[in-house]
Design brief:
The protein has 2 domains: 40-140 and 384-433 and 467-524, no CATH class; 149-354, Spore Coat Polysaccharide Biosynthesis Protein SpsA, Chain A, CATH 3.90.550. α6 (226-239) packs across α9 and α6 (226-239) crosses α12 (336-347). The two termini are 26 Å apart. A hairpin with a 5-residue loop joins β19 (473-482) and β20 (488-494). The strands form 5 sheets. Strands 1, 2, 3, 4, 15, 16, 17, 19, 20 and 23 form a 10-stranded mixed beta sheet that branches. The chain is built from 16 helices and 23 strands. By secondary structure, the protein is of the alpha/beta class. The structure holds 2-acetamido-2-deoxy-beta-D-glucopyranose (3 copies). The site of one 2-acetamido-2-deoxy-beta-D-glucopyranose has 3 residues, from loops. One 2-acetamido-2-deoxy-beta-D-glucopyranose is lined by residues 55, 57-58. It comes from Lachnellula suecica. Keywords: Glycosyltransferase, Membrane, Signal-anchor, Transferase, Transmembrane, Transmembrane helix. InterPro entries: Fringe-like_glycosylTrfase (IPR003378).
Amino acid sequence: MGSSMATGNRLKPRAPFTRALFLTVFCLVLFIYTLRPSSIERPAQVQPQRNPMLNGSHVHMSDCTINKSQLEDLQDRYELGDEIEFARRYVRFHRQDIDRKPMTKIDMDLFPRGFDEIDIRNPPRRTTCLKPLEVPVPRSRTPNTVDASDLLFGISTTYSRLTDEEISPIKEWAHWLTDGNGKSNGAGLVLRLIDATVEELEETQAKMTDMGIDVKVYPTDSSIEMAKRYLSLLPALYNDTSRESRKFLVMCDDDTFYPSMHNLLDRLSQYDYRTDLYIGTLSEDVNNIQRHGSQAFGGAGVFFSIPLAEKVADKFDQCSTAEKIEEANTGWGPQGDILLRKCIHEHTETTLTLLRELHQLDIQGDPAGFYEGGLSPLSLHHFKGGMWHKARPYEGAQVIHACGEDCFLQRFQTADDFIISNGFSIAYYPKGIDFNIHQIEKTFTAAPDDYGWNLDFMLGPQRKNLLWTGRKVAWELMEAQVQKDGSVKQTYIRKTDDYRWTYGEGGNRMFEKDGVLELVWISS
Ligand SMILES: *[C@@H]1O[C@H](CO)[C@@H](O)[C@H](O)[C@H]1NC(C)=O
Ligand SMILES: *[C@@H]1O[C@H](CO)[C@@H](O)[C@H](O)[C@H]1NC(C)=O
Ligand SMILES: *[C@@H]1O[C@H](CO)[C@@H](O)[C@H](O)[C@H]1NC(C)=O
């Protein structure tokens, strides 16, 4: 039944306490613990749990078995040590007529029995078996009911990026272009592949069509100046035969991700698509706005109404002369976003309509503060590492297939000082949650110059980060699977050598072993 508290591993980071103090606290905790109503399943009840609300097809089992080969696979993928700390918790969500709160407090412990100490070479057959954690969630919709036929997207990229195992965006595109079951959600995609061969175009077309993506793949030519190529995508979208049935033409980067299409469409429906509209967002970094101008930063997604797209298409030649391209160079090479803004400003009365839930994410370093901020982003960008940050929003967003769009990045605070940022992390605060949860933790930096306040206008002033303080440790989501019964299993991992979880910068590690936490989201 896993390790009990007697092994002293109950959520205990290695702290420089004296043994006496430790024992006193330990005995106190043990005493209080015996008085609490237990959320632990008695061994006799370690059986499939039947929820009377469910009919036969949706019975969820609390599976407390440990599968050695699955642990070995995780060990391989994430270079885990042989001895790990492990815990699994089922989370039963209850859809209610409530708003999505910045923080949902749950009056239960997340891991009342701490973690099991497991040797992957010889694991126990079962893990500590707990009753599901019960959490309320708003009634939000799932991808299988999206009708996005109002939208036609345009992206330029290269065949080599599409086929790169590390950064290929195709499965992410399928998230926002299909119903999650291999069928188009109605949205179209015009994909331009730079310098691709006929075979590459055909292969891409076939592969993406197979995945249910309504795509038209075209070649484009690297000899055309990049900024001009970018601008020419809008007339190409405007020219598409499906235009008549669209309301918005959307340009974005190959690393733009739209987690929640219902929410995106709801927001867009607040605007009158028959008027001239240029909708997008600024960079979070005022430094970039000063450098490049007040315009839509394309990685967050830029939405054009058809009437405005028509005007840009008409003026394409005038807007893309050598002189205009030179004017779009702010010292970082000619920028497509600038060429587009100038074309709109110089030929129409339209300026940017700011949709702040879109995110360019010009941030570097540890992005946790953003993803743990309780936000409900309509787009995400720059999350593939390299010079920007690294995150896994595709894996994170899988949970919406079970509990609806609002669940992604929704926060739950449990009685034992954990905060689940659903689909990003499970963070534990050993000294309590004594900070302003409404502010974003400044774990990241602006680039290339961080004045300390560049990001404040868009993200709000951020609170001081808790790195190297011993006050925070987080397991981050690495994978997630929608399972046959409709539940979603998430795997969160904390490595012992993570540079962030130490006492003092470069100081002693808070934990001696790697940690794996699993959450399984089941419906009520
Ligand atoms: C069982 O539940 C599923 C999903 O809620 C529903 O589609 C199905 O009709 C239900 N079957 C019965 C027998 O109630
Ligand atoms: C354990 O997991 C593997 C996949 O890693 C799977 O093939 C196997 O069926 C699982 N075994 C049991 C008993 O569930
Ligand atoms: C759009 O169609 C017009 C008319 O058929 C054509 O002249 C123009 O080159 C096309 N533009 C693009 C970018 O495909």
